Amino acid sequence: MAIDASGDDNTTKKVAKSPFTSKQLEYFKDLVLAKRDSAHTDVERMRAQLADAREQAENDTAYSYHMADAGTDAMEREKLFLMVAREQKYIGYLDRALERIENNTYGICKITGDAISKERLKAVPHTEISIEAKLKQKSK
C-alpha cells in the first residue's frame, strides 16, 4: 500500500461526481433506457429469425435442398448469432451506463477523470471515455 508524505493512503482513487444536474441525468437515463429497449427488441427479433431458420432447415429434405443453399443459410444463421452477441454486449454497456447514472458518476472519463461533453454522451450515451481520450488511444 502506497502512503504519501502526509501519511494518507493514496492507492484508493477518489471517485468524481457527475458534472450533470439531476435533471440532466434523468434526460440521459431516459436516453439510455430507450436505446436499451430498442436493443432488446432487436435481440428478440433476431432470435425469432434464428428459430424460423432452424425450423425451416429441419423441414427441408436432402433432395429438395441444394448444398450451396445450405451453406448460405448456415452463413446467415452465423451472422445472426454474431449480431445477437454484439447487441447483448451493447446492452451490457447500456446497463453499466445506468449504474453510473444511479451512482452519480455518469459523464466522467475513466482515463482522464474529466467531464465528457454532453454532445458525445448524446451520440454515444454508454461511453466511459471522452473524445480526447479516445483520440489519444487511436493515435498510439
Mean pLDDT: 84
Catalogue the unreliable spans.
Answer: 1-12
CATH top level label: Mainly Alpha
The helix fraction, in percent, is: 55-70%
What's the CATH H-level superfamily name? DksA, coiled-coil domain
Give the biggest sheet: none
**CATH third-tier fold name:** Four Helix Bundle (Hemerythrin (Met), subunit A)
Explain how this protein is built.
- The protein contains 4 helices and no strands.
- By secondary structure, the protein is mostly helical.
- The protein has one domain (22-131): Four Helix Bundle (Hemerythrin (Met), subunit A) (Up-down Bundle), CATH 1.20.120.910.
- Helix 1 (22-59) packs antiparallel against helix 2 (67-102).
- Residues 1-12 have low confidence and may be disordered.
Relevant terms:
mainly alpha, 140 residues, elongated
Helices and strands in order:
Layout: H1 22-59, H2 67-102, H3 118-123, H4 131-139
Helix pairs in contact: 1-2
What's this, in brief?
By secondary structure, the protein is mainly alpha-helical. The protein has helices spanning 22-59, 67-102, 118-123, 131-139.
